[in-house]
Amino acid sequence: EYKSLLSSVELAKENLKLQEQAFLQGLSTNAQVIDARNTLSSIIVEQKSVAYKYIVSLANLMALSDHIDLFYEFVY
């Protein structure tokens, strides 16, 4: 899921760039630029949330299996 969001982040960045350029040329509105920024922000937040859930799940798994010392090998 995290990796699939990487392409979404790139697409949202490109969309924001295009919306900003269109706004500077008078072809789009400020609201469209703000929507593009909000979309990018929400995708980044979702990506960070997925990463956080993965880390917490991994830590729980390592703790339950009595291998918490191996946690950093998986994370880094």
From TrEMBL:
GO terms for molecular function: efflux transmembrane transporter activity. It comes from the Bacteria. This is TolC family protein.
